[in-house]
C-alpha cells in the first residue's frame, strides 16, 4: 500500500492507465479518450503476434499486417488526446487517501522503469506468452509455418499436408479442427489417450506414434517433421498448441482473485475483484482472437467510464 502522505492533490494524474498497447488496450483507450478521459497507454512494444504476417477474423481488417493495425490504432488514440509511451510497468500499487473509505477512491500508483504515474483506474491488457515444447527450430518457424491457431492461420495452409504436435491433451481438439482444412493431417502422438485416439480415427486423422526430434526446413520453408528414429514425415505446416502463460506480473501485488486455472477472475465487463482494476483480452481469455480482444477492451472502457462518473458524483455529494 502506498503511503497516503505521498499523494498530492495538486499533482496531475491520469483517469485511466492502460497497460498494454495491443488491440484490447488500444480499443479501450480510444473509447475513453473520445469520452474526454485522460488516458495513458503504456506498451513494451513486443506484441505476441509480431511474427505473424497478417491478422485474420477481424471484419474490415482481415489480412492487415499486425504492425500496421497497431500503428493505425495508436494514431487514432492520439488523435483524441490519448497518450502512448513505450515503457514497462513494473508494479501497480493502491493508494488510500481517506481513512475508512474504499481504496479505489484513492486510485493507484503505476511504477514505470524511470517514473511513477498516478491514476484513478487501471486496465490491464498485457496478453500472454506462448510456452512451447523444447524442439530444435520450432520457435524460429513460429507464426510462419509452425502455427498455433486454425482460425488465425488455417486458411493460408488449406489443402496442404499438415501436422499437429500432440505434446499436450489440448492438441487432440486442435487436430479435429485442422482436419477441416485438409484431407492430409498427421497427429504426432506424444500424449494421447484412448478417447482421443478414437476421435482422431473417426475424423480421419492419421496417427504417428513416435517422438518428434526436430523440423526439416529448406529454402526457408518447412518441409517435414523429423522423428526420433531419423525418418521424416513430409509436412508443409505444423500446428502446435502452446501452453498459455498470462503476463500478469504488474498486478501481482494487488491481490486480484484468480480462477481454478490461475488466471485473473473478471466479470463480463472485465472488472477484477480489486475495485478500480480491469483486465481484458488474452490476459484473461487465452483463446481470444484480435477482434475479441478489441471488443473486450471496448466493453471495459464503457464500464470504467461509468465507474468514474459515479465516483465523480460521490465526490460532489461530499462537498
Summary of the model, kept short:
By secondary structure, this protein is of the alpha/beta class. The protein is built from six helices and 17 strands. The chain folds into two domains: 4-129 and 243-318, FAD/NAD(P)-binding domain (3-Layer(bba) Sandwich), CATH 3.50.50.60; 133-239, FAD/NAD(P)-binding domain (3-Layer(bba) Sandwich), CATH 3.50.50.60.
Plain-language structure description:
The protein has 319 residues and is α/β, with parallel strands linked by helices. It is built from six helices and 17 strands. Strands 1, 2, 3, 4, 5, 6 and 17 form a seven-stranded mixed beta sheet that branches. The chain has a five-stranded parallel beta sheet with strand order 8-15-9-10-11, covered by helices on one side. β10 (185-189), α5 (194-203) and β11 (206-208) form a beta-alpha-beta unit. α1 runs parallel beside α2 and α1 packs parallel to α6. The longest helix is centred in the last third of the chain and has 29 residues, at 290-318. The model is unreliable at 1-12 and 99-104 (pLDDT under 50).
Amino acid at each position: 500500500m502506498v503511503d497516503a502522505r505521498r499523494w498530492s492533490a495538486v499533482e496531475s494524474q491520469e483517469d485511466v492507465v492502460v497497460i498494454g498497447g495491443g488491440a484490447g488496450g488500444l480499443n479501450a483507450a480510444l473509447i475513453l479518450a473520445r469520452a474526454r478521459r485522460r488516458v495513458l497507454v503504456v506498451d513494451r512494444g513486443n506484441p505476441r503476434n509480431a511474427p505473424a504476417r497478417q491478422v485474420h477474423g477481424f471484419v474490415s481488417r482481415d489480412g492487415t499486417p499486425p504492425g500496421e493495425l497497431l500503428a493505425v490504432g495508436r494514431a487514432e488514440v492520439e488523435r483524441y488526446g490519448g497518450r502512448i509511451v513505450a515503457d514497462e510497468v513494473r508494479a501497480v500499487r493502491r493508494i488510500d487517501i481517506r481513512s475508512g473509505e474504499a481504496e479505489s477512491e484513492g486510485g493507484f500508483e503505476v511504477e514505470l522503469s524511470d517514473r511513477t504515474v498516478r491514476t484513478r483506474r487501471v486496465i490491464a491488457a498485457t496478453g500472454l506468452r506462448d510456452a512451447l515444447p523444447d524442439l530444435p527450430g520450432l520457435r524460429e518457424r513460429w507464426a510462419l509455418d509452425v502455427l498455433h491457431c486454425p482460425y488465425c492461420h488455417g486458411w493460408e495452409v488449406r489443402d496442404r499436408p499438415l501436422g499437429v504436435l500432440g505434446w499436450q491433451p489440448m492438441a487432440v481438439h486442435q487436430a479435429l479442427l485442422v482436419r477441416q482444412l485438409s484431407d492430409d493431417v498427421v497427429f504426432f502422438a506424444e500424449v494421447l489417450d484412448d478417447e482421443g485416439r478414437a476421435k482422431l480415427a473417426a475424423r480421419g486423422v492419421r496417427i504417428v506414434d513416435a517422438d518428434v526430434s526436430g523440423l526439416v526446413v529448406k529454402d526457408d520453408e518447412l518441409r517435414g517433421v523429423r522423428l526420433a528414429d531419423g525418418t521424416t514425415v513430409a509436412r508443409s505446416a505444423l500446428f502446435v498448441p502452446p501452453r498459455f502463460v498470462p503476463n500478469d506480473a504488474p498486478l501481482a501485488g494487488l491481490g486480484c482473485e484468480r480462477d481454478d486455472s490461475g488466471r485473473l477472475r473478471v466479470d463480463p465487463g472485465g472488472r477484477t475483484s480489486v475495485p478500480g482494476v480491469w483486465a481484458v483480452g488474452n490476459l484473461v481469455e487465452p483463446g481470444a482472437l484480435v477482434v475479441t480482444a478489441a471488443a473486450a477492451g471496448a466493453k471495459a472502457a464503457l464500464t470504467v467510464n461509468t465507474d468514474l462518473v459515479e465516483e465523480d458524483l460521490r465526490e460532489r455529494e461530499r462537498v
